[in-house]
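Structure ticket #2291
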Amino acid sequence: MRAQSKPFIVEVKSSRRPERRQSASIWGNLDLSAVAEEIAEELPQPAAAPAESADAQ
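Resolution: structure written out below.
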């Protein structure tokens, strides 16, 4: 028969290093909604299709 192992306790001690509270995001503090609005303003708006071509079909 196998010998039984004794129960043990794992003790987690606090680290002496200060914790890093930086965000893991690659975008940082960049406001993506503002960037999306700027890009939408810069892109040319699609021209409306002429009504005559729709009637011809």
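Closing remark: The chain has a mean pLDDT of 77.
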